[in-house]
Amino acid sequence: MKEFLSIDELSEYLSMKRSTLYALVESGELPHYRIGRLIRFKWDEVVQWMESHRREERHVDRKGRDILKAVNRPRADIDSLVKKGIAQVKGVKYNPSSGNQVESSTRKGGDHGLV
């Protein structure tokens, strides 16, 4: 692969319209070099830019609903975040070491822990 690509070469390689690439260049989102009216793209920088746009996997369940799959995140971390969030809304303190909920003093005050 050549180190520098023209807009046509990049368009073909990424299967993107030239107009889309020009818009990304104009917005400053896509790293590029401008020499007079010529635009060139450094291969390594394009690869890094593409990696920065990587998204998590999406799956469809049996009912056809789109499900976002958490990549490389342990299930326990998600469970504790959900429990902590619910406890904050309810005005209850959550003790992660014992898994027990302890009533917060703010709950008795009537504001239910909400600011």
Structural key phrases:
alpha+beta; 7 strands; 5 helices; 3-stranded antiparallel β-sheet; two-stranded antiparallel ribbon
Write the layout of secondary structure elements.
Elements: E1 4-5, H1 7-14, H2 18-27, E2 33-35, E3 38-42, H3 43-52, E4 58-60, E5 66-68, H4 75-90, E6 92-95, E7 100-103, H5 105-108
Antiparallel strand pairs: 1-3, 2-3, 4-5, 6-7
Notes on the structure:
By secondary structure, this protein is of the alpha+beta class. The chain has two domains: 4-52; 75-108, no CATH class. It is 42% helix and 21% strand. It is built from five helices and seven strands. The chain has helices at residues 7-14, 18-27, 43-52, 75-90, 105-108; strands spanning 4-5, 33-35, 38-42, 58-60, 66-68, 92-95, 100-103. The chain has a three-stranded antiparallel beta sheet. Strand 4 and strand 5 form a beta hairpin. The radius of gyration is 25 Å and the shape is elongated.
Sheet bearing the most strands, described?
3 strands, antiparallel
Order of helices and strands: EHHEEHEEHEEH
How many strand units? 7
- Parts with pLDDT < 50 across at least 5 consecutive residues: 70-74
Distance between termini?
Answer: 56 Å
Secondary structure class reads: alpha+beta
Shape: elongated
Radius of gyration: 25 Å
Average pLDDT rating = 76
Give me the number of helical elements: 5
Q: What share of residues is helical? A: 40-55%
- Strand percentage lies at 15-25%
Number of domains: 2
How are the strands ordered across the major sheet? 1-3-2
Tell me briefly what this model is:
The chain is α+β, with helices and mostly antiparallel strands.
